[in-house]
Amino acid sequence: QVQLVESGGGLVQPGGSLRLSCVASKNIIRITPMAWYRQFAGEQRELVAVITGGNSTNYADSVKGRFTISRDNAKNTVYLQMNSLKPEDTAVYYCNAGSPYHSWGQGTQVTVSS
Length: 114
Fold this sequence. Notes:
Blueprint: E1 4-7, E2 10-12, E3 18-24, E4 34-39, E5 45-51, E6 57-59, E7 67-72, E8 77-82, E9 91-97, E10 103-104, E11 108-112
Parallel strand pairs: 2-11
Antiparallel strand pairs: 1-3, 3-8, 4-5, 4-9, 5-6, 7-8, 9-10, 9-11
């Protein structure tokens, strides 16, 4: 079992930036696929970005060119840099550790509004 703790959410104006962080309780992120998901009110979670153990990344079409996923193995931390934020990015963002852990963080609220 691994615990994930997200931070970095908040209120930002359209066009602004935020960086989300996800700290894992164990030294797993270098070998485990790590991902960020988001959940809009009343909808299911959707994949935003993923980074594999081999450092390949993949993004949802809606965030390509604006969001960047990265990790710091020494800090057991995965980041999501979000630039050029839009009101439609407003959601709760969750960190996920893939197989074999299948763990979720508690989520962090991101609100993009003027």
